[in-house]
Amino acid sequence: MSTSKGKIFGKDLLGLGLLFLFLILFLFSDQVSTSERMESIPNAWINVNTIFLSIVIEAIPFILLGVFVSALIQIYVSEDTIQRFLPKNAYAALFPAALLGAILPLCECAIVPVVRRLIKKGMPLHTGIVFLVAAPILNPVVFASTYFAFRNNPTILYSRMGLAFVLSIIIGAILYSIFRKQPDQLRNKANVSLASHHVHIEEDQSQKRSGKPGFLARVRDTVYHASDEFFMMGKYLILGAFIAALFQTFLDRSLLETIGTNTYTSTFVMMVFAYLLSLCSEADAFVAASFGSQFTDASLTGFLVYGPMLDLKNTFMLFAFFKARFVIAFMITVTFIVYFSVIILYGLIL
């Protein structure tokens, strides 16, 4: 147990150290750029630092929101409650899961810990997946940001929202058919890591099962759970943000614009772009709008639908908390379903 705690502490310390280093470079960037010793640092790496911090600073509030929602679910929501409100039929449960995603203002930065906690509390895997891919797009904040970014082109707004709702149900149904006989796809290692962080929380809860915990005890447990998951998720956020910053800095955008000359190739290119940029779903509509003169409406819709469902930073989070086979199946399913749905929608209907 002590060895496991030491490894976890070491990973947390490494992640915090990396974030602290980039933060120091950000705060003292003027001094760094004028220092004689640091003049040899290429501007590209200064740009990596800036983009990295922008992604992290943008994502941290939503990560905090997600881990606190996850902690509240752990403390206040029982397994019986989840089972009582979900339809017994597996396919019938997909629809209310998509509706739930339209209510809660969670982006893809915050959704992974919430879904993980719901599944641990008894929500079926396929229902959790519907919520995972629907909530980052269908929530009211994203609807508003997309409306203002594309107020002169409402087709993209309604295409984004309509596809997100329908495709989330389809993706959930496909993954249910694949994993219906193996519904437990959470990684045991992640569960053990979480438990080993604060073992005394579980002990306190077991002692209180005979009576109802007091308000202060619930607040304390909520803070403990939230802090545990924040440090767990933070490591993968930092790693994903750093790699995304490298791609944003060194990827040749002119090459992408050259390739994206028609609906088929441009949609694929913009989906790849959405994956690598790892933008928060609350802000990605304004980035997509900036490409409006170079790319088709179909490709912009693919960018707006695919990015919140799957990007580089939440891929690391998914692999950390779900089994690799499931994550690979999830990635393949989301990619194919989104691509062909966008092509069909704009090719046959719009």
UniProtKB/TrEMBL annotation:
Keyword Transmembrane helix: yes
Membrane topology classification: Multi-pass membrane protein
Chief place where the protein resides: membrane
Transmembrane helix recorded as keyword: yes
Pfam families: ArsP_1
Family: Belongs to the UPF0718 family.
Name of the molecule in the record: Permease
